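Our platform keeps sequence and structure together, in a single record for each protein. Such a record has a labelled line for the sequence and another for the backbone structure tokens. Nothing more is needed to write down the fold, since each code stands for a local backbone conformation. For reference, a complete record is included directly beneath this paragraph:
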Amino acid sequence: MLLSSCKTGTFWSGITVSAIQMKGKTVKILMIAPQPFMEERGAPFAIYHHIKALLCMGHTVDLITYHIGKPVNLPGLRIFRTPAIPGIHQVKVGPSMAKFPLDLLVFLLALVQMCSARYDCIHTHEEAGAMGVLLSSIFGCKHLYYMHSDLSQQIVSSEFTHNPFLIRCVATIQRLIVRKAHGVIAICPDIASTAHRMTETTPIYMIENSAVDENLPTPAPEAIQRIRQELELGTGPVLLYTGTLESYQGIDLLIHSIPAVHKRFPDASYVLVGGQSAQIEQFYDRARELGIHDAIRFVGQRPLDEMPTYMALADILLSPRCKGTNTPLKLYTYLHSGKPILATEIYSQTQVLSSETALLVPPTAEGLAQGAIELLSDPHQARMLGEKGRLFAQEHYSWQVFLKKSTRIQEAFASDLVDTTDRAA
């Protein structure tokens, strides 16, 4: 069970709750998140941290979400889950056919909740923005949209469809959401720029999904050694990837880079954390074809509290992403770890990383191989990159920084709610 808390009445950063409350009243929020909540992957992590920040501000959140997900215990949060649909036990990252019936149930549950309780505002994530537009219009309350990605780009990068008509339809819906929302939170500079191109009137706020759970325990040496033994890693260096195994993550490039690295460093091992069983089987077959299956370990999805141990196990952290423009959430955790980062030099990553904090290489198998060999050959350079990344993360991407940014955004949005209440009175 996930458990986190905030000091009552004040932020950790020292900002008082009363600054963003509506005339001393707690803001009651209906949040709609069409995600398996909670699961160890990007969007659910981001939603969790945004909820945690809202609760730290003294607000309350009722969350409408899928029936799938681990329990979460956060004082001030109530979770309303859709009824289970027979045969749907998991939801893949990005768009999928399973989302259509699940999203319909999410909307109906949100509609019932709006009819049975009074909320000050609606917060929505991803495609639920369309639900927020409709519910906001029906019930006359403000709508804040969290824009994690450009939905039309997402259905292309995830290879859900390449049909031009469907892509245009999704792009139209995305523009409608941004234009009709009363505020938009973009999760990286590129998404903020995309949102600004869609509207001249909707307030656009930008806050990176950079919150890192700083309450996770420091891994014990024996726990690190136990994983090393369980995975039969020997004493050689470990190159670690965490995240989903979707096509845009560049896992295929990473696997094709391993033979060249293994030739120079035969004792090096690659550990990949995350992904579904079918994806793991597919990539393992590819590794077997290349003759490097003994150098790679797929461990599947792991609980959040195990991640510090895997990070401590690693000598190099990998982000081989090859598509998309939104920033991978893993980069913030990578930076905080103090371990050297090897990443592809594409815009989604350079919004956060630079040559000062990571080794950036072309998004090719050759580039990833050369980068890995360079870091393994020069431990001093690797240590310096890791330390610079850690210091950069402490200054720019700590939980306190995330909370301060969230506070300013919610204060601006809440002040608009107060002004609207005043005009109505």
In short: The longest helix spans residues 399-424. The chain has a mean pLDDT of 90. Residues 130 and 177 are 6 Å apart (CA to CA).
